[in-house]
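pls design
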């Protein structure tokens, strides 16, 4: 799913000529702590509740505040993983979406992106998660997939990131289409792969914040 499909049209942008009081009222109604600011269809940045309250002048115009996260944006055709990465880099709950020509299309809230991930096939399909520690030099997705498929299973999704304690190692997170993966783990270990995490599917559902924390943990972005 791409950014254009995730735009939340219920979140309106502010104009530079709006005042802080209007911004606060909108934020309270929408239950958010920031809003985008645009001028003539161009994204200028975000204004936050904290900035306005710290200034303690509700009649001050938006254009007179120092806006935040001017670079917190993606283009309409970027993947939702790019949205999460941008939100993480900017420590923001929203990411602006721009057209190919640079025009403002709207914003995507991090909760909207989490829902898109939760609705994806890799999340919805039953299965278990294995986390491998592999040296960068020895990493081969084709080899790992071959070993998994040799145990009559399939890799539904894979995420690869550097190990924070050793930059020469990779953490490879696999979603497998089977809920019992002891035989798969044993096969991988026979070929020298180190299993550092194993997560069986649970029937209980987590809330949005828990999903976000889990995603950040395994993508490490």
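designed seq:
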């Amino acid at each position: 799913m791409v950014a254009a499909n995730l735009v939340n049209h219920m979140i309106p942008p502010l104009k530079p000529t709006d005042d802080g009081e209007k911004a606060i009222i909108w934020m309270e109604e929408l239950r958010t702590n920031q809003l985008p600011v645009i001028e003539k269809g161009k994204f200028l940045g975000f204004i936050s509740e904290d900035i306005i309250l710290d200034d303690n002048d509700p009649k001050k115009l938006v254009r007179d505040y120092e806006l935040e996260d001017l670079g917190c944006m993606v283009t309409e055709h970027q993947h939702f993983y790019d949205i999460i990465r941008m939100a993480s880099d900017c420590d923001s709950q929203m990411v602006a979406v721009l057209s190919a020509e640079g025009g403002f299309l709207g914003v995507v809230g991090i909760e909207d992106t989490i829902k898109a991930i939760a609705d994806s096939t890799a999340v919805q399909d039953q299965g278990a998660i294995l986390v491998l520690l592999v040296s960068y030099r020895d990493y081969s997705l084709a080899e790992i997939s071959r070993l998994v498929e040799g145990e009559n299973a399939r890799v539904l999704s894979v995420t690869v990131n550097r190990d924070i304690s050793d930059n020469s190692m990779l953490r490879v997170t696999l979603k497998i289409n089977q809920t019992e993966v002891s035989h798969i783990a044993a096969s991988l270990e026979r070929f020298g792969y180190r299993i550092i995490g194993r997560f069986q599917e649970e029937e209980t559902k987590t809330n949005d914040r828990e999903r976000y924390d889990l995603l950040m943990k395994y993508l490490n972005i």
